[in-house]
Amino acid sequence: MTSERKKEEMTFVQHLVELRDKLLHSVIAILLIFIGIFPFANEVYGFIAAPIINVLPADTNIIAIGVISPFLTPLKMALIFAVYLAMPYLLFQIWSFIAPALYKHEKQMIVPLIVSSTILFYAGILFSFYVVFPVIFGFLSSVGPSIVDFTPDIQYYLDFVLKVSFAFGVAFEVPIATILLIMFNITTVEKLKNNRPYVIIGAFVLGMLLTPPDIISQVLIAIPMWLLFEAGLIFAPMFKRKSPTEPINDNDPTKPSKDSQKNDADHNDESDDEDWDDEALDAEMDKIDDEFNKLDKD
């Protein structure tokens, strides 16, 4: 039993190679999307700048203070936009890397979790773009002194938009985080319900850290986080982790008794402990060194 398990387990080097492959595939996906939208970088930035253009006075545009900002800022925007568009594939790469450590019935949850994670991430970005930004920019454009012209710089505007939109995209993943915590028995629904006041306070603190220093954006991110936390509590029992073992019929003479199963389990535990003595550990480290040497030669 122990030897069969060892055959199925991956070595440390194999894990590193698989992680390298996942990262390489993710980078290639982002570059392909970036190459596709790079010719339209100015149009993409014009679309992203729409919320602040709508609140500026007539015949007024945002400005560029830096010499090369008109070129680098749309380029940076196109690259970040490519990352956002590649997010479903990136999430799939993350889940596929984790999948070997999961049970069979847990692997079946990967697709629903990837789909829901992607939808929630995009929902957070859309919420920030169509709800939060018009409120924030409308407020900021109306509170300044009348002698000051509200003409933001394109680089500062892009940094602001990226920070806030990504914060909302991550904040909308709260239900997924809640489900995972309960699914892996890190906590329970009852404990989270009892700690609800602390979660609400934490949502406002996190909103303060993730958003610019204004109360509007802090409230607009804290309230959805709290509501999504409640949604996670509702759907979490559906993903609760179950033991993969099946019940054994005690009346079946062909199956081992509970005492023999316990003795076998104790024997397996003792054999597992013996497998990881000093000699076995040294042998495993030598094996890892040999694999690294082979990779270097290749």
Explain what the structure shows.
- The protein is mainly α and 298 residues long.
- 74% of the residues lie in helices and 0% in strands.
- It contains 15 helices and no strands.
- Helix 3 (41-48) packs across helix 5 (69-85).
- 18% of the residues are buried.
- The model is unreliable at 1-7, 246-256 and 271-275 (pLDDT under 50).
Key features of this structure:
15 helices; 298 residues; globular; disordered N terminus; mainly alpha
The end-to-end span amounts to 34 Å
* pLDDT averaged residue by residue: 77
Radius of gyration: 26 Å
Strand pairing plus helix content: what structural class? Answer: mainly alpha
| Percentage of β-strand residues | under 5%
Summarize the entry for a quick read.
By secondary structure, the chain is mainly α. The chain is built from 15 helices and no strands.
Task: Provide the fold topology.
Blueprint (H helix, E strand, L loop, with lengths): L1 H7 L3 H26 L3 H8 L1 H4 L15 H17 L1 H12 L5 H4 L2 H34 L10 H18 L2 H10 L5 H6 L1 H15 L4 H21 L22 H18 L2 H20 L1
